[in-house]
Amino acid sequence: MRSICAIEGVEAAGVKEGKYGLAIIRASGTAAATFTSNLVSAAPVNLMRERIAAGRLEAIVVNSGCANAYTGKKGYEDAVEMSRIAAGALGIEADRIGIASTGVIGRYLDLDRIGRQCKEVVPLLEHSAAAETAAARAIMTTDLVEKHALIEADGFSVGGICKGSGMIAPNMGTMIGLIYTDAEVGAADLQASLRLAVRRSFNRVVVDGDESTNDCTFCTATGAAGRVPQAEFAAALQACCASLAQQIAADGEGATKMLEVRVSGASDEEAAEAVARTIVGSPLVKTAIYGEDPNWGRVIAAAGRAGVRFDPDTVSLTIGEGEAETPLVRDGVIVSDLVRAKAAMHGRKVVFTLAIGEGEGSATAWGCDLTEKYVEINGKYTT
């Protein structure tokens, strides 16, 4: 699937040595970013919070295998040095280099390895599907699949790659998103559009409820396609981020099914978000999905603890979508057909739709089931 290298002006490459990878994407343009809200934020996050204020990047380098998080002053200095190493290999000023790291917390970067990998990757940079695939693979940790998205709009495109599988919860998760567009967008508009897109996508994914130290999403606008209507750009960016967010949910650590929860009738969008995220984050809902157990009462119970006011006796709930959509509760009255409900849980995707009858607010959130494999992966993550 094409993604970032479908955007004019973007070159990419990556290498992977066991669990240690490095990707470089070169593209000059206006840039914006969002970061984790975890108090224990990683050194590269702290550095990039300072640099992104300039509103322009020439390239981004990402290493996998070491998060460079909770590494103190040395970690920050190492993050700066990582950008200098990449800048030297690329012939670009260091303050125009974006950096990100993912992997084990509490370990220092191997700068010698990063230097060697930078020298190996830079000559491989090219504008091709193979190049974006190599970059997407290089940033993976426990991910099982690459994640690509491309939205082709009227006269411009938005493409992205990301990594993320575990330690995923609002806000964002152990995810790194690298998004590019050929639209010409000013720095302030780009930042505002990215924040809204992240809110409506990555911030609505819950795999396990743990928020990472390293979350970041970058968006670079090369401007090759010229100015486009801001509303059209914002919609395309949201569509790209939503596609990547759903791929993260589907590839959750140990997951066998993706969970989608659609909430409507809330007092506003924020309330709908809170309900949807609470449901997809519920361990009881997740385990029921894994066991294909139509225990839909867990969905109602999770909604009730989301901190949102509604009348439980007026809600409606269905499972499935399209012709397979099956009513469970209608206006507070139980109408469930448990045989049909169980059948709706057989596939790779399970959808719940909840209407709470308080207003016009709506939101969708994504997650996955919770399996024994998740425990296995995270019980032995560093060993």
Automatic annotation (TrEMBL):
Which domain of life, per UniProt? Archaea
The protein's matches in PANTHER family, at most eight in alphabetical order, are given as: ARGININE BIOSYNTHESIS BIFUNCTIONAL PROTEIN ARGJ (PTHR23100), ARGININE BIOSYNTHESIS BIFUNCTIONAL PROTEIN ARGJ, MITOCHONDRIAL (PTHR23100:SF0)
Write the record's keywords in alphabetical order, separated by commas: Acyltransferase, Amino-acid biosynthesis, Arginine biosynthesis, Autocatalytic cleavage, Cytoplasm, Transferase
Entries under Gene3D superfamilies matching the protein: ArgJ beta chain, C-terminal domain, L-amino peptidase D-ALA esterase/amidase
Annotated substrate binding lies at 141, 163, 174, 253, 378, 383
Annotated site residues (Cleavage) in this chain: 173-174
Which protein, by its recorded name, is this? Glutamate N-acetyltransferase
The answer, when asked if Amino-acid biosynthesis is one of the entry's keywords, is yes
Q: Does the keyword Cytoplasm apply?
A: yes
Residues at the catalytic site: 174
Record-annotated site: Involved in the stabilization of negative charge on the oxyanion by the formation of the oxyanion hole: 102-103
Mind telling me which CDD domains this protein's record contains?
OAT
What GO terms in the biological process aspect are recorded for it?
L-arginine biosynthetic process; ornithine biosynthetic process
Q: HAMAP family attached here?
A: ArgJ (MF_01106)
Could you tell me the EC number(s) of this protein?
2.3.1.35
**What catalytic activity is recorded?**
N(2)-acetyl-L-ornithine + L-glutamate = N-acetyl-L-glutamate + L-ornithine
